[in-house]
Design brief:
Length: 167
């Protein structure tokens, strides 16, 4: 299958999966998605449009700005899904504190996903509800960690915690 068609089927899978949770969905895309072609099937687009709201930007637009605006405008509980790591947007931020706050916001709002081995199904990892830093309570420390080194993206954080208690 061509990569674009695979992406289209992944989008369909993602919309179908998220719609089952009775969540209000907004899909940001480009106008070329509305043209029936070998890569974009009109009947499948119509089926997705019954499950989610869509906004189609111009084909040459930078859709990340729409994504960030829509997420921020929708309120603090809004989450977003994208394959983009938003590195360019972080790089445009003027100071390290602002970049840190953006990464923290991103970790709390971006839903990560992985593809199944055969690439047919999407598995979602929920956004974190807590800050992934060493946390202490009295004589107890909670330290996030990974079993082995693996490359990660800035919004991905360890999902395992080591609990140490002083006696």
């Amino acid at each position: 299958k061509p990569l674009v068609l695979l992406c289209f089927l992944q989008l369909f899978d993602a919309v179908s999966c998220l719609a089952k949770e009775n969540t209000r969905l907004l899909v940001l895309g480009r106008k070329h998605m509305l043209v029936n072609s070998s890569n974009w099937k009109r009947e499948i687009m119509k089926e997705m449009q019954n499950k989610a709201d869509f906004f189609f930007a111009e084909n040459i637009s930078e859709d990340d700005a729409f994504l960030l605006y829509a997420t921020l405008q929708s309120g603090k509980h809004c989450k977003f899904v994208t394959r983009d790591f938003l590195r360019d947007h972080k790089a445009c931020l003027s100071d390290s504190l602002t970049r840190h706050l953006f990464r923290k916001w991103q970790r709390g709002h971006q839903i990560a996903f992985t593809l199944s081995v055969e690439g047919k199904h999407i598995n979602f990892l929920p956004a974190l509800r807590y800050d992934c830093v060493v946390q202490t309570t009295g004589d107890t420390w909670h330290i996030p960690y990974k079993d082995a080194y693996e490359e990660k993206h800035s919004y991905e954080v360890p999902r395992k915690w080591l609990c140490i208690q002083q006696k």
